[in-house]
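Sharing a chain and its predicted structure for anyone who wants a worked example. Both blocks are below, sequence first, tokens second.
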Amino acid sequence: MPRFIGLLQVDSTVGNLTGNASRIERAASIAKEHGAAMAVSTELAISGYPPRDLLLQPDFINMSFDRATSLSVEIPVLVGTPVPTEDSRSLPANGVVRAGSLIAQPNGENTNRIVAKKQLLPSYDVFDETRYFHPSNRSGICRAIGGMDLGVTICEDAWQIAGLTPSSYGQDPIQNLAEWGRQGVKLDATVNLSASPYHADKVGSRIKVCRTAALTLQHPFLLANQVGGNDDLLFDGCSLVAWPNGTVVVAPSWQEGVLLVDLDQPENCRWIGMAEEDALSIGNDTLKIISSDSDGHEESAELIEDITDAVITGLADYCRKSGIKSIVLGLSGGIDSAVAACVACAAVGAENVLGIAMPSRYSSQHSLDDARYTAEALGMQFKIESIDEMHSTLESKIESVLSNGSPVARENIQSRLRGIIVMAHANAEGRMAVATGNKSELAQGYCTLYGDMAGGYTPLGDLYKMQVYALAEVFNSRASKSGLQPPVNSSTMTKPPSAELAPNQKDEDSLPPYQTLDEILRLHIEHTMDADDIVQAGFTREVVLDVLARLERNEHKRWQMSPAPRVTSKAFGQGWRRPLASRHDWRD
């Protein structure tokens, strides 16, 4: 007889305890309907992940735990929740609690007992869990749940065994469970309640984790992963199960649903989607079965498709979870604003997006034509509001200041006037302004505070410039396959990038070619290579030093940028902790 477990891949909203509980209940019902004997939610599914300093509020902990214990389910469900201190319902002064999972039983036999508490607490990159949680010192086991005995782990608990944590924690939950197995503790499987943040090709790492755990334990290892965006963090779903022989089944990305796992026969695993009617239609809704001779890493074409879905999901969930219905952005005719418009239309619907072209005396006609083309191809709202008269008036008013200063001050007036217009529409019409800058420009300070950086979200903020071009190709391809006009025309794709803030201005007048710039930044930011290492990789020393010096000089701008969805392994955001006031000089 098949032994089915449902992995509940849900999109929790931080703080929405009732809504999150309803999603878990609905997913559990779907799992039961399709034959699951029990189900597993994701990490902190009831509170949403990451709740950050909400965890310092005793009422939030107690309310989350109470909501988890009152779930109405028809099969046993392991539910991720913050756990109050054991001896009372009040928290210690520092607010530290435990992250754990409890078992919610069907009505009439609801024991709601805690079965596992997280042992390994990451405090690196985007994680800061020792700020909130006490670690447990033993692995969890759940007996006779749906007729099965299960090991229970929570997210990071599984990663050390695969060598994918920065350092040793001093204990290994998977090794502990394996040792118990050698001592005669028989388990049918081990499960993992996870909220593993996305970056490109992260699935390959998770496959390694699950395969290593399954091989070590000598039984199936199942990982239920969160899906959706919360602030700047994205969660791709891709819940998975691995068997000791290396076979892996991976659920779809960027979709809510249930991965129904047959512990004995991988070919019987199924995916049941549970999307709402107005949910995004992205990703592929079929399971992936990965054989033991594949590492699961995606090809470059698959990766850029996945990154496209990631940034759409990030903006869409940011808007939905914040109650934002419509968007406004500057539409310049350049590649960044064109792709940002594509993302916005995919996220909230073209009818809810306004693009504004704001030409100045330095704007070219082709830029205006290209902006109009993109707007018409996408079906979004479009306006032209010239800033030329305002520009001239303001220049004349402060000419005595401008004439004695840097030419950049004169250029930035245009960007800030555009920011005023965009924000006026945002405030007057109840829209959110989105900034259109990319990671390469943000790294080099090629962005204007209170100008083109104005906005509540920066959808391209973790994409290098050449990745923006790649996303344009994806949007064009998707449009063509749907019988629609490609939204980014050849003029936008091929003209030299320019801010058009001065006559005949081009980005490469003061920056290296973007192919070079992007790779230098990637090696330094994501691979922590210093100047000498990057030079050894084949780049000119002077160019490298210029790029790194500009990166250091412009940290103050990045501290003021709006959230950007994290799609690389190191984004400008909570995982990037450079000092604001620094005199570090790469030329020393």
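Comments welcome. The longest strand covers residues 77-83.
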